[in-house]
Amino acid sequence: MNKHIKYIVLSFILISSTFISCNKLVENPDSVIVSSQFYQTSSDAVAAVNAVYNTLNSDPLGDFPMYGRQLNLLTDNASDNQNFSPSNTNPDVRALSTVTYVSINGRILKNWQQHYFGINRANIAIDNIAAIPATAFPNPAQQTQLINEAKFIRALLYFNLVRLFGAVPLILHNPTSVDVSSLQIPRTPVDSVYGQIISDLKDATGLPATYTGANIGRASGGAAHTLLAKVYVTRKQWALAQTELQSIFSGGYGYALFANFKDVFQKATKNGIEHIFSVQYATNGGEANTTQYLSQSFNSFNTGTYPIDIPSDSSISALFDTTDTRKAVTFYTSQFNALNGQTIIYHNPYTPYFNKFVDYTLSPLNNQTISGINFPVLRYAEVLLLNAEVLNEINGAPTAEAYSAINQVRARAHVSDLTPGLGQSDFRDSVFLERRKEFIQEGQRWFDLVRQGGQVLVDALKVFPAKQAATLKDSLYPIPLTEIQLDPLLTQNPGW
Question: CA 364, CA 404: separation in Å to the nearest integer?
Answer without folding.
Answer: 42
